[in-house]
């Protein structure tokens, strides 16, 4: 085992898109686990759009020149608590570093599901999958045969949403993404029926072409113009599931497009947002739903796996710029 640890710090607040200059890799001696704690060597890291929100000077945001936080899976390499055994793999939130000191209260033991790759616990079985599952089953309350539109459809949440929606008996699936190549990937690989590049014209026009008969549910990862377009395309009793607003994270001061508020009343629409952290009680239900499908091959995790902790900042930036598909995960070499 190495005797040094690497940790990523944020060194400055970005305006617009962050760059590698807003981060630093800081080397330190390997921490000793305190009594009652354990030292974990991280194996997989999740980098997420909410980290971009935390880079701003907001309550609960990242402090400058301090270790960043994020979801990770790590192996216990030294333990001073009977509650964590050396060799066991745990989920915790002290990511963005090669090694972390954790207490038993801060970790979740990973269940062992034969044939399921570890990375899946950060993708379809992790917060990303749980977000899609909660959005579909609890917020949209999806019914069989209903037609969906999903924005940021090629990302982690967007791909999990399509895969789960199909397994739940959804009707037509339409997705939007940032390039023609990614739109092709959505229909060829992920299982969308139609997909468009949102750069190709006004969202209302593109959505009307892709879903000429309208939609029942909008799973919205983006906000902005696509949200306005979806309000127009929704059928009576349609639902808008507000998951995220990635169109605003890197463009402070962007004008928020308007939609006809009367549509909400006249079509009896429901718009509801949620935070996945308020639904962690559904984690076991997600395992019960998804694991058999993973094992049977009916469910494939969509992941971009980047090898090497030294690439974690680049992986984060690539995800923000839309250069990846599926859930982006960094893996230790
Ligand atoms: N409510 C919750 O608890 C919760 C939990 C997890 C995630 N989320 C939200 O869900 C959304 C998706 O998260 P994720 O982890 O799955 O990330 P992701 O979709 O894998 O990555 C973000 C993607 O957003 C797209 N994007 C970036 N800028 C955009 C813009 N201006 N307009 C439209 N699309 C843009 C890019 O893909 P393109 O190539 O398609 O542009 C990018 O790859 C985010 O808004 C996130 O904050 C919410």
Tally of separate helices: 10
Q: How many strands, what sense, and barrel or not for the largest sheet?
A: 7 strands, mixed
CATH-wise, what's the superfamily of the largest domain?
A: Medium-chain alcohol dehydrogenases, catalytic domain
Question: Mean pLDDT, rounded to whole units?
Answer: 97
What's the CATH architecture of the largest domain? Alpha-Beta Complex
From the alpha-carbon coordinates, what is the Rg to the nearest angstrom? Answer: 20 Å
What is the number of independent domains? 2
Order of helices and strands: EEEHEEEEHEHEHEHEHEHHEHEHE
Given as residue ranges, the uncertain stretches (5+ residues, pLDDT < 50) are: none
* Helix/sheet category: alpha/beta
Global shape = globular
- What small molecules does this complex bind? NADP nicotinamide-adenine-dinucleotide phosphate
Helix content: 25-40%
Percentage beta strand: 15-25%
The CATH topology of the largest domain turns out to be: Quinone Oxidoreductase, Chain A, domain 1
How far the N terminus sits from the C terminus, by CA atoms, comes to 13 Å
Reading off the top of the CATH hierarchy, the class of the largest domain is best stated as Alpha Beta
Strands, total number: 15
GO molecular function: oxidoreductase activity, acting on the CH-CH group of donors, NAD or NADP as acceptor
Protein name: NADP-dependent oxidoreductase
Organism: Streptomyces longwoodensis
Domain Enoyl reductase (ER): 20-330
């Amino acid at each position: 085992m190495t005797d040094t640890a690497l940790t990523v710090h944020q060194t400055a607040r970005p305006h617009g898109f962050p760059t590698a200059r807003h981060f630093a890799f800081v080397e330190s001696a390997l921490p000793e686990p305190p009594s009652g704690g354990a030292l974990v060597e991280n194996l997989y890291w999740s980098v997420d759009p909410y980290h971009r929100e935390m880079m701003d000077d907001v309550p609960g945001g990242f402090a400058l020149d301090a270790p960043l936080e994020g979801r990770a899976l790590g192996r216990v390499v030294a333990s001073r608590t009977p509650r964590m055994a050396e060799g066991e793999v745990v989920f915790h939130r002290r990511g963005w570093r090669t090694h972390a000191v954790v207490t038993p209260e801060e970790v979740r033991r990973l269940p062992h599901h034969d044939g399921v790759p570890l990375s899946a616990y950060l993708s379809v079985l992790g917060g990303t999958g749980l977000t899609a599952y909660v959005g579909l089953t609890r917020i949209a309350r999806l019914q069989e045969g209903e037609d969906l539109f999903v924005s940021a459809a090629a990302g982690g949440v967007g791909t999990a949403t399509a895969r789960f929606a199909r397994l739940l008996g959804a009707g037509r699936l339409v997705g939007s993404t940032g390039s023609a190549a990614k739109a092709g990937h959505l229909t060829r690989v992920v299982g969308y029926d139609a997909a468009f590049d949102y750069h190709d014209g006004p969202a209302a026009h593109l959505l009307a072409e892709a879903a000429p008969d309208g939609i029942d549910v909008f799973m919205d990862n983006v906000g902005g113009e696509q949200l306005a377009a979806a309000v127009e395309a929704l059928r009576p009793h349609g639902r808008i599931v507000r998951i995220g607003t990635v169109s605003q994270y890197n463009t402070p001061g962007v004008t928020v497009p308007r939609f006809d508020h009367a549509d909400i009343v006249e079509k009896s629409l429901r718009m509801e947002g949620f935070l996945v952290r308020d639904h962690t009680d559904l984690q076991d239900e997600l395992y019960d739903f998804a694991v058999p499908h993973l094992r049977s091959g009916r469910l494939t995790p969509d992941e971009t796996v980047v090898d090497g902790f030294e690439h974690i900042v680049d992986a984060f930036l690539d995800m923000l710029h839309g250069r990846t598909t599926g859930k982006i995960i960094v893996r230790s070499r």
